[in-house]
Amino acid sequence: MSEPPPGLTAVTGTKPRVEPLDPPMVPFALGGMAAFALAAVIVWLADGPDSWLRICIAGFVIGIPGLLTMIVHDRNRRRRRALTHPEFRVTS
Prior knowledge:
This protein is mainly α and 92 residues long.
């Protein structure tokens, strides 16, 4: 096999592998639910169209199973982190 060009070794060399981001997901689910709840209150107080109010309520209600799913995801994430990085501690 031929040697790679000199400039390519910096790109394909022995650089450490960057781990993908794995942020906690519960805050995102709560933020989405809070946004739908706030939008529902605004539409209700502004006497907006009923269909908009129903959409806001549906978004909030559909967020409940999403929140439960994200709670399980974060629990598994903390478990995975404890196994792969024993020095890493999550305090939430």
